[in-house]
Design goal:
The structure is a single chain. With 85 residues, the chain is an all-alpha fold. Helices cover 72% and strands 0% of the residues. It has helices spanning 14-27, 31-62, 66-80. The relative contact order is 0.05.
């Protein structure tokens, strides 16, 4: 049966390693779990940052400012969910 994980080795400063070990003990989780979750959150944050950056660039190119966002959202919602009167 093939492995479902890949082992990666990296170095931490003693101070960070101590903090990881402390969190590990407090949360009753393994070092791998903590580092895996931290890396996943970091990668997701990077993806969100890229998405927001794209949105800001696109809005600028279309001449959309912060004051335009709420009316555009309301207009979109009205199109997607027409009133049921």
């Amino acid at each position: 049966m093939p492995r479902t994980t890949k082992t990666v080795t990296f170095s931490l400063s003693p101070a960070i390693a101590d903090r990881v070990d402390q969190a590990m003990k407090q949360q009753g989780r393994s070092r791998s779990e903590l580092v895996r979750e931290a890396l996943l959150r970091y990668l997701e944050e990077c993806e969100w940052r890229q998405l927001f950056q794209y949105g800001e660039q696109r809005a600028r190119s279309l001449g959309i400012g912060p004051e335009d966002v709420l009316p555009l959202v309301e207009e979109y919602r009205a199109e997607v969910r027409p009133s049921r009167t």
